[in-house]
Amino acid sequence: MYQKFVGFENLRGDIFVGITAGIVALPLALALGVQSGLGATAGIYGAIFLGLISAVLGGTRSQISGPTGPMAVVSSVVIITAIEIYGSVEKGLGFIIAVFVLSGFIQIIFGALKLGDYIKYIPYPVVSGFMSGIGIIIIILSLFPFIGQASPKKVIEVIFQLPQALAKTNWEAVILSGMTLFVIYLIPKFSKIIPSSLVALLFISPFSIVMEFKVPLIGSIPMGIPELKIGEIFNYDMSHLSLLIKLALTLAVLGAIDSLLTSVIADNITRTKHNSNRELIGKGFGNIIAGFFGGYLEPVRQ
Fold first, then answer.
1. Considering 98, 132, 169, 223, which has the largest number of Cβ atoms within 10 A of its Cβ?
2. Using CB atoms within 10 A of its CB, is residue 154 exposed (0-12), middle (13-18) or buried (19+)?
3. Alpha carbons 146 and 170: distance in angstroms, whole number
4. Confidence class for position 5, pLDDT limits 50, 70, 90
């Protein structure tokens, strides 16, 4: 009874799955951190703190919290807004953190009010359209990095500036991008166990170093425990409070929908049943802690 209560009966499998999920999450966290506009470090911190807090407090046993594509796009809107208002990410950091932390509090309120029970009433075409739109946005925003150029922050700017950027294509970056995609899609044809994204990261990166390719780098990743940024949360212009609340509410709602819909899918695969309201509360606390440590807001996906 004791072993079953603490979950020791699946300890070996849990350790293996945990290591595998962590390995798979690494390149994803790096990429989506960059995509959000806060950088690779923010993606890693988000994966660490969300994965830890949400696993303990959440209501879905078969999922692991971390950065996701849909919320990376929505989070980038917050970053762009802060830059437009304050001039840079550094000057707008208080505003950004406040939005993410408030989103976490709102998700906790959603869970306490048991609003998670109503997720099943959302029409599937609406969800499908939302996810498809996010996918298209991610593809468009990836075009400039694919050819080795710094990408504009807005989709419309990417579309209009792409012809000029193509004239300055970094072909070494195109080679690396193409090889990475090839490896990611090739590996699953031979093995479903080995994470293809990790294989691409481990083999293509050294290849670029050996070949001395001149391509943009994500930069250094700081070591150790990140610094708490609680003092930054009130470091913004209070005249922007209504905008802050609107952005936080948008993030909270979309994050809740993304998380709970994924939980439903996981239930169908694992034949389990998640607790929607507890999941929202767990995500809320995870987003609050991640925000204070500099990790950007994300729901769940692995």
1. 98
2. middle
3. 9
4. very low
Closest CA to 244 of 256, 233, 254, 255: 233
Phi, psi of 90 (to 5 degrees): -60, -45
Residue 63 confidence (pLDDT): 72
> What span, in angstroms and rounded, lies between the C-alpha atoms of 291 and 97?
6
Residue 125 has which token pair? Answer: 């075409």
Separation CA 226–CA 237 (nearest Å): 25
